[in-house]
Amino acid sequence: MLNPLVTSVQMGGVFVEALLGRQYADVLGRKWTYFVCLVLQSGFNLVAAFSVNWQMFKVLRFLIGMMIGSLLVVSYPYLREFVGRKWRPLAIPVWLTGVCAFALSRWLRPDWSHQHITLAALHLRFFTGWFFVPESMRWLAVKGRTDEAEKVVDQMSRYNKRGKPTNTLQLLKQVAEEEQKLRASGSKYTYLDIYRGWSVCWKSLIMQFEWQKSLL
């Protein structure tokens, strides 16, 4: 009885933070939200490994679920901003690869406490990304920080060994101006926007269906 309960509690945390994580990312930025949630998830896993009762374990699994929810809604769009359309499909199998790796780890080390310690340790290699992964250039542009956004474009140009478009700053300023006009008009984005227009609606439904299958 406890296993299904704990799983349901964790998925409840995923649901709650999937709704809130987008707000954090819009306010704090993609980079800050991603790495803060990564640190917290690692910490919660480490503490969960030393739970003294199932109530404590349940609370920590809820918190872990919250961090998973935030990371899911932030990491995929954040990643796709730096990957061209040709290579974006290669980013999708990352989730399934992780699930398979976790299943193998679970088989090799079935003890739940060891599993949480392992998961906490696996986060360490991702923390190094803080020093070279840039902030979302679109988020910077929307916030009016076009000079910083242009520096991100410079960084990506160096990584890809390609020249930067000459009108980069102009395009970024255009994005910033469009966002300012939208805010001045009082218009706001809502979850309903992902269903407005058939082109966006059917893509949203397909993505939701595929994610549901992967979680099941």
Description:
Helix content is 74%, strand content 0%. By secondary structure, it is mostly helical. The protein has three domains: 1-131, MFS general substrate transporter like domains (Growth Hormone, Chain: A), CATH 1.20.1250.20; 134-185, no CATH class; 192-216. It is globular, with a radius of gyration of 20 Å. The relative contact order is 0.09.
Poorly predicted regions are none
Secondary structural class: mainly alpha
Helical coverage, percent range: over 70%
Number of domains: 3
Strand content bin: under 5%
Shape: globular
CATH superfamily of the largest domain: MFS general substrate transporter like domains
Distance between the termini: 19 Å
How many distinct helices?
10
Let me know the number of strands. 0
Biggest beta sheet attributes: none
Task: Kindly report the average pLDDT value.
Answer: 85
Order of helices and strands: HHHHHHHHHH
CATH class of the largest domain: Mainly Alpha
Q: Remind me, CATH topology of the largest domain?
A: Growth Hormone, Chain: A
> So, CATH architecture of the largest domain?
Up-down Bundle
Q: Rg to the nearest angstrom? A: 20 Å
Which terms would index this structure?
216 residues, mainly alpha, Growth Hormone, Chain: A
